[in-house]
Amino acid sequence: MSPSTKYTEYDAYAAADEEAAEGRVFDVNGQDWDQVVSGAEDLGDERLVINMGPQHPSTHGVLRLILTLDGETVTEARVGIGYLHTGIEKNMEFRTWTQGTTFCTRMDYLSPIFNETAYCLGVEKLLGITDQVPERAQIIRVMMMELNRISSHLVAIATFGLELGATTVMLNGFIEREYTLDLFEEICGLRMNMAYVRPGGVAQDLPSGALSKLRDYLDRMPKRIQALRKLMDHNPVYLARTKDIAYLDLTGCIALGVTGPVLRATGLPWDLRKSQPYCGYETYDFDVITEDTCDVYGRYLVRVREMEESLKIVEQCVERLQTVKGPVMIEDKKIGWPAQLAIGADGMGNSPRHIAHIMGTSMEALIHHFKLVTEGFRVPAGQAYAAVEAPRGELGVHVVSDGGTRPYRVHFRDPSFTNLQAVPAMCEGGMVADVIAAVASLDPVMGGVDR
Amino acid sequence: MSSQHPEQKAEQAADRLPAQPAPKPQEQPIVRRGMFGAKTTGDTSGYGRLVVRQAPKVASPRPYGGPDVTGEPGEFDEIADTLERSLSGFDDAVERVVVDRGELTFHVRRERLPDVARRLRDEPDLRFELCTGVSGVHYPQDTGAELHAVYHLLSITHNRRVRLEVACPDADPHIPSVVSVYPTADWHERETYDFFGIVFDGHPALTRIEMPDDWVGHPQRKDYPLGGIPVEYRGAETPPPDQRRSYT
């Protein structure tokens, strides 16, 4: 008998009265630090185990760090996660393949487009339609991903500045991110959690005027990134807090599965966009940024220079979008849904033309629409793994189908989840203040970690 | 299907048609009947007679080819050959090899998993130095192998990927841990234990990672419902979805 059948008989409060396993516990409620200090003195123990988080402002989201301190030195660091677990993978098993994008976009909420694209690439691989996705859709995907990379890296740098006490960096980073989110809003109606990339293409084509907005953005952004670099690159306070901090070399990164900017800051030019291209990345001209310092400063430099490379890619996308016309969703009507969307006053929905067609002129189209919306399409049985280079590293998706209209199992290999394992390796033996810098340089997003 | 005529035989060989026809889906156990989970009232969905059978367990014949399907021996054959050379008792360790959708999967017997993983990591011609996670899958109908752990390995040196799939029965949910080979599998194995109840023997600290420590049950299993679980919040109660509203 498996234990899972007993969940209804389970008394959640049965173990509430149990005492801590070891040592004396102090509850800190503010203005009582003297009591803690005198209490610790009475114990005659130099070792102090403290919880940093899950509600500490310096931990990204609800990350809990359990630090064993000897004075200011961290002798042991353990990471506690799970406070933001929402069961997205389980939920996706109860919705159609298309509806899955709406769930997985909410995982890593700073890089929604990457979540969607990884998932859609997996589903397309299962369907065997990777080659049939229209070129225009691929260009839009690449453009959206690179814009998203810029906005995600901006938050990484902005929050990093905030955690080190630099409000100016935070404000500047978030202002620029705001402009990027405005573009998302312009293109798909939503600033976050867009569910814009769908199996077979993207939900809808660019609205008129989007290209000129993109060009304004491209004119503005290089100067703004330069301004940010001017503020940060040679700032003595910033350098003191980041140089030679949280060292993790190539061996450590590979053993711990760390990818993304952290890996590239060790000097290895590993970028899935170059090494295992998807969505046509092999046709774009850009460089893989590396640094060889293996420290927090190197990771910052990789991020900030990657934004410049991303701008180059976006520029090429805008150029191509002027000439490459055509559909943005696969021709196959049995898969291509929703492909008839429009943005109305109240957001995105079925276009009035499509509604007039199914409600007024064609009963077959109505039946087809109804079947696709309620039942979805079938995906041949099997499994596939697709990976994209997300801002934080390799975002992999393992999709399993049993031949039905809903995923049998979807598992995301989120880079934040894997990278967080490196926290003990980066922090132990260092100072408490450097823990903040180390965690911030990993840039974990708890929505992606806990899913 | 297969003909005795030598000319046709040669043609079939050229087409690489399977000598034995694939097992008929009728022989597979039934996974599901009907649609939308409707069981109580009359069949208004029109799907009442639908029978969904489990996908058969297939094994790919040689040559395995590569990520691009060409029919010629490719990098998947190189991987399999190198592994076969360096691993004693390859046929005993690898139950089946499946090439599907441009991906290579080794179905490994659980006792031999650390051995196979170590070979894949250390052999210079293989060098799968990065493990990109462990994923669990629950197949309640697959008697004797209900729980699967799926490992995705990546070779940065050779720019290749390979998948290992290991199965264990629900009654004895033990799989040897690969943390000693791939330290990054630490959290991934904890996650798979948390969600599926697979016990990874030899893991340094196999505890729950996403769910609370005192949680009962493993949520990603197919026999675990979506919603309707008593929550640890005083006074709060969420009934199962099918009992949430009643207008009597």
Distance between the termini of chain A: 29 Å
Q: Could you tell me the radius of gyration of chain A in angstroms?
A: 24 Å
Largest interface: A-B, 57 and 56 residues
Largest sheet of chain B: 5 strands, mixed
Overall shape of chain B: flat
Biggest sheet overview of chain A? 3 strands, antiparallel
Radius of gyration of chain B: 22 Å
In the sheet with the most strands of chain A, the strands line up as 1-2-3
**Overall helicity of chain A:** 40-55%
The fraction of residues assigned to DSSP E strands of chain B is 15-25%
The number of helical segments of chain A is 18
Listing every helix as H and every strand as E from the N terminus to the C terminus, the arrangement of chain B reads HEEHHEEHEEEEHE
**What's the average pLDDT of chain B?**
81
Shape by Cα distribution of chain A: globular
Structural class of chain A: alpha+beta
- The assembly state of the depicted protein chains is heterodimer
Helix proportion range of chain B = 10-25%
Q: Structural class per helix/strand content of chain B?
A: alpha/beta
- Ranges of chain A with pLDDT <50 over ≥5 residues? 1-8
Strand order of the largest sheet of chain B: 3-4-7-6-5
Overview of this protein structure:
- The complex is a heterodimer of chains A (451) and B (248).
- In chain A, the strands form four sheets. In chain A, strands 1-2-3 form a three-stranded antiparallel sheet. A three-stranded antiparallel sheet of chain A has the order 8-9-10. In chain A, strands 4-5 form a two-stranded antiparallel sheet.
- Chain A is globular and about 85 Å long.
- Chain A is α+β, with helices and mostly antiparallel strands.
- In chain A, helix 5 (135-163) packs antiparallel against helix 6 (167-188), helix 5 (135-163) packs antiparallel against helix 12 (296-323) and helix 13 packs across helix 14 (363-374).
- Chain A is built from 18 helices and ten strands.
- The longest helix of chain A has 29 residues, at 135-163.
- By secondary structure, chain B is an alpha/beta fold.
- Helix content of chain B is 19%, strand content 21%.
- In chain B, the strands form three sheets. A five-stranded mixed sheet of chain B has the order 3-4-7-6-5.
- Chain B is flat and about 70 Å long.
- The mean pLDDT of chain B is 81.
- The interface between A and B is large, with 57 and 56 residues.
